[in-house]
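Q&A log
Question type: sequence-to-structure
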Amino acid sequence: MRFDYSEEQQMVRNMVRDFARNEIAPSAGQRDKSGEFPAEIVKKAAELGLCGIAVPEAMGGAGFDTVSEALAVIELASVCASTAITLSVNNCVFCWPLQTFGNAEQKERFLKPAARGDFLGAFCLTEPNAGSDATNLSVKAVEDGSDFVIEGTKAWVTNGGVAGAFIVMAVTGEGEKRKEISAFVVPSDLPGISVGKEEDKMGLHSSNTVQIVFEGCRVPEDLMLGNRGDGLKIALSTLDQSRISVAAQAMGIATSAFEEALRYSQERQTFGKPIAQHQAISYMLADMAMEIETATLMTMRAAWKLDQGLPFTREASMAKYYASEAGKRVCDRAVQIHGAYGYSTEYPVERYFRDVRVTTIYEGTSEIQKMVIARDMLK
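Response status: OK
Response body:
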């Protein structure tokens, strides 16, 4: 068993680390305050292949593996979680399902340009009354000749207001046991699509999160992704894969929070010595380091299994659950170590604390992860 990274994986990590620190970090705090979307940064990221990290080169991507993708997300999230999630959504919940389930024409029309960064993609699953229960969708796609007419509202759509295309899950029929759900690739400029409410979030202020409203939106039948009724399968397998990226995001944020706390604890003095030399603080730092190390190993194991073509659902859920909860604890301790300064926006740990919180919620809450893990164990 090897625990080191290949030369190529290290190259990706180092390249993204340099880009993150030089191009993203200087404006991250200001964008958190202003809510400005990092459009220029996304353009520069596209030039480095970061819009299609694990997409094959023949399909416009960089052709790296999932481990490299996870390493890239850690580096991006360590300086700006908003930028990390913006790129992760394009990579993991737009490009990946297209690469996995799309036909040749759909890949040529949508996957190639999204992987190149010509436009960003978004994923429309959640609705105002359908979150953890993905079978409870109310957005419908009614067949009308050679088109499907989509009606309804999707919620919490990351990149929704800036996307060039969406992957949309919609009800295409009512069955005896459950609704028939199908997936569609929908260009954002089709008539009948509008951007609704923009969410005023606790964190991730410079990522774009909106409602997308469909009103009589006619989608040609050749834009159905996979077969009719495959929507739930496509959605759940996409979430399985994207949970690895969320785990990596949590670890990137937590790593920076830990480094800030470690630095501050060696500078701040009480009772005649740095607070790092007090047992209470040193034990907190030790716990933080152990949780980051454990979560990182779990995340990379899930990524490795996906790359090997092995079953990875349980490992991805375990990594997502543990990394997000550990990240939350690490960032909380970082604020505590900073004391009153940790509660001030002058110190980055305040932003890390807010940004990491959502990782226990999106791509399936921590409670849903336990359900997935238990169900997989009890098969």
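Response note: The chain has a mean pLDDT of 96.
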